Amino acid sequence: MKINRLFEIVYILLNKKTTTAKELAERFEVSVRTIYRDIDTLSSAGIPIYACQGKGGGISLLDDYILNKSILSENEQNEILFALQSLTVTQNPETDRVLSKLSSLFNKNKINWIAVDLSPWGSEKHKICEFTILKNAILNHQVIEFNYFNTSGEKSSRKVEPIKLIFKVKAWYLQGFCLSKNANRTFKISRMSDVQITQEIFVDRLPKELPEDIKEQSSQKWIAVQLKISPHGAYRVFDEFDEKEITKNQDGSFTIATALPESEWLFGYILSFGTDIEVLTPQNIRAMIQNKLDEIIEKYKNIK
């Protein structure tokens, strides 16, 4: 991207002193004309960069130029580095490279104030690449195409104007305008595959801040449930429910009054608590759990 190329040009000149437009063009795989436009951009930003024609000429910075004293205060330098460090939790190699170079330019030790493992991004190389694809599509206003699996496991092809990546409740989501459905949608990243950037450019049709209540399934039915969780399940109670939804009982158990999606997911979620949970209401969910458990027991009865 252009902003990274501009930083790298300054970095090269600070270390190499003089280079040529041709050398820079070959390095960044762009035209010489593009490099001269970059030089004009840097010059307009107040960086003393100049080009000399003829033998022995080239592109240079003034000998006494120091980036960290030219246009950024000490606090501004730190804020830039802190912001970049926060982005490294996505384990994007490009961000880490820029952070390293800017730390060198500002003559500061590499900032290291945050460390977060956002698996599966951090554990799978193709997911890191996918994250970079989505980021670039958002910043460059490019339409993307991908296959998507909904909560029922049904596969569909989607074409989307990507707006924002968000991390919520232990998972990454993409918010955007789905051209396939002609509506706002939120997609769970782990259910996306074969993500491709198209050459189509879009203009934002949505506000920058999308409503927080956009659900992955706009038609999803949410129901009020009351749960009882034993003291052995206490470690999950305050991780997964709002404090206002929790009542601690005298025996150390917890009663939870909350809303959950009425779907197959609900059964799996309740089952994940094992014997530490009981659905108190509604009655139809209790009956569903009973029926599902009967099915499971029946399957194991038939094992010889």
From TrEMBL:
Residue intervals of the HTH deoR-type domain: 2-60
Species of the source: Candidatus Desulfosporosinus infrequens
Protein name according to UniProt: Helix-turn-helix, type 11 domain-containing protein
SUPFAM superfamilies listed in its UniProt record: Winged helix' DNA-binding domain (SSF46785)
Record keywords, A-Z: Transcription, Transcription regulation
PROSITE patterns: HTH_DEOR_2, WYL
Protein origin, superkingdom: Bacteria
InterPro entries xref list: CBASS_pafABC_assoc_protein, DeoR_HTH, HTH_11, PafC-like, WCX_dom, WH-like_DNA-bd_sf, WH_DNA-bd_sf, WYL_dom
